[in-house]
Every structure is written in structure tokens, then in C-alpha cells.
């Protein structure tokens, strides 16, 4: 059977992803969290794994550079890629929220929203009819309302510790996030057997 290429998000979900793949029978001997290698083959050469930044996984899959991707729903929503989302892998659970210095929305003219996810923020407020200005940040987003650069943030909350330690409150809860399995549309048509076999194995482990 032909080999499939899987784009795996680096970072905090990679360990769970590799464990899941192992339990499904895909072993990547030379993969560990410290490696600088980016491409790995499984024992039986049925799968090539490429290790990429989480935010880039939907791009690799949409372009067909990878047939399959494992990535957080946050990055899928932000990328708005033309791909299939086939499975919820049930780890990397967290939530998108709107948060700020007070428990309600407070702003003078236009609401200024800082986020690593400007598309998600824009879509959320547009649906409510609230015009916003977005400020794209790449981390430490909680700082923006603290220093007066933004009125609120749209960010991920897991334990709530980061918000709490910075004196921020949740104003509104948004989508639930978890790690998902995504598939390139053309690959799903041309490598149907290999992809379906892979998905069946993953589903069996998840059950
Ligand atoms: N606090 C959290 N708790 C649980 N899951 C999280 C949390 N923060 C992020 N995630 C999930 O884990 C994925 C990977 O997060 P990680 O912080 O490793 O990547 P990143 O945002 O690309 O980081 P960086 O830009 O710092 O490299 C996110 O896309 C999200 O789905
Ligand atoms: O509710 P908590 O358990 O505190 O988790 C939430 C934090 O985790 C993520 O940040 P990350 O650790 O990825 O750092 P970053 O600021 O570089 O995005 C997220 O952006 C929040 O800041």
C-alpha cells in the first residue's frame, strides 16, 4: 500500500500524538522531543511523519504537502483551510475565550482585540455585530489589556492560571478546542484505502 505523509504539530501536543500513533501501530524510532530532525519514517515505511509548527499544519495539508495532519482546532479555525476535519482526538483540550480586566465588555469607541487568532476574533465579533480592531500578537497575549494596548483578548484558557495571575477575567466563553485529525481533500480521493485504514486504527485506539 502507498505511504501517507502526516504533518504533526510540534509543541505541547506532540507527545500525545506520538503515543496515539504508537498505540495504532506506527513507530518512529528516532523521534524524541529534543531531536532536530524534521522527517521520520515508521518501521514499515507506511507513513512519513513531518514535524512542523502547529500554526502551519493546516497549510501543509491544504497544499497536499501532507495527506493528513494532527493539529489543534484553534489553528484549524484560524487558518480556514479547505480540508476535511475527520476526528476529534480528545487531547489538548482547552477553550477559546474573550477576556479582559473586567467581567464585561468595556470600550470607548472601537473595541481593540489582541490575539494570536485575529481571524477567530474578527469572526466572533462580526457575528455579534461588534466592529473591532485586531492586534496580532504571537504570545504573552494577556499582557495587552494589562498595559492598555487592547481592551480585551481572544485567547486559549486551560486551567485559567495565566488569566488569574494577571488579574484578567473571562468575559465570554467561545469554542471548545482539542486536537483534531485533518485530511487533504484530493488525498482522500486518491489514497482512500491507506487513509481509511489509518483512520480505522486510530478510531480503535480512541474507543
Ligand atoms: N494552555 C493550553 N492547554 C492545553 N492545550 C493548549 C494550551 N495552549 C495551547 N494548546 C493547544 O496546543 C496546541 C499547541 O500549543 P503550543 O503552545 O505548543 O503551540 P504554539 O501555539 O504554536 O506555540 P509557540 O508559538 O509558542 O511555539 C495549540 O494549538 C492548542 O491547540
Ligand atoms: O489557562 P492556562 O492553563 O494558564 O493556559 C493558557 C495559556 O496557555 C497558552 O499560552 P502558552 O503557554 O502557549 O504561551 P504563549 O503566551 O507563548 O502563547 C495560552 O495562550 C494561554 O496564555
From TrEMBL:
Reactions this protein catalyses: 1-(5-phospho-beta-D-ribosyl)-ATP + diphosphate = 5-phospho-alpha-D-ribose 1-diphosphate + ATP
Source organism, top-level taxon: Bacteria
EC code(s) of this entry: 2.4.2.17
GO biological process terms held by the UniProt record: L-histidine biosynthetic process
PROSITE patterns the record matches: ATP_P_PHORIBOSYLTR
Protein localization: Cytoplasm
Gene Ontology cellular component list: cytoplasm
Description of how the protein assembles with itself and partners: Heteromultimer composed of HisG and HisZ subunits.
Protein name: ATP phosphoribosyltransferase
Organism: Ornithinibacillus caprae
Lineage of the organism: Bacteria, Bacillati, Bacillota, Bacilli, Bacillales
Gene: hisG
Amino acid at each position: 500500500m502507498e505511504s501517507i505523509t502526516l504533518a504533526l504539530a510540534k509543541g505541547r501536543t506532540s507527545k500525545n500524538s506520538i503515543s496515539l500513533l504508537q498505540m495504532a501501530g506506527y513507530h518512529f524510532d528516532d523521534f524524541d522531543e529534543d531531536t532536530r530532525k524534521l522527517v521520520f519514517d515508521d518501521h514499515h515505511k507506511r507513513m512519513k511523519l513531518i514535524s512542523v509548527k502547529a500554526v502551519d499544519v493546516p497549510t501543509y495539508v491544504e497544499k497536499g504537502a501532507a495527506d493528513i495532519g494532527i493539529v489543534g482546532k484553534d489553528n484549524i479555525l484560524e487558518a480556514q483551510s479547505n480540508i476535511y476535519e475527520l476526528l476529534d482526538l480528545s487531547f489538548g483540550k482547552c477553550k477559546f475565550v474573550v477576556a479582559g480586566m473586567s467581567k464585561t465588555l468595556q470600550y470607548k469607541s472601537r473595541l481593540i482585540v489582541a490575539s494570536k487568532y485575529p481571524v477567530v476574533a474578527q469572526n466572533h465579533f462580526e457575528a455579534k455585530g461588534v466592529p473591532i480592531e485586531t492586534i496580532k500578537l504571537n504570545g504573552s497575549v494577556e499582557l495587552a489589556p494589562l498595559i492598555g494596548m487592547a481592551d480585551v483578548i481572544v485567547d486559549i484558557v486551560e486551567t485559567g492560571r495565566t488569566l488569574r495571575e494577571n488579574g484578567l477575567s473571562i468575559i465570554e466563553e467561545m469554542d471548545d478546542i482539542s486536537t483534531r485529525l485533518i485530511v487533504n481533500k484530493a488525498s482522500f480521493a486518491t489514497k482512500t484505502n491507506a487513509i481509511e485504514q489509518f483512520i480505522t486504527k486510530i478510531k480503535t485506539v480512541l474507543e
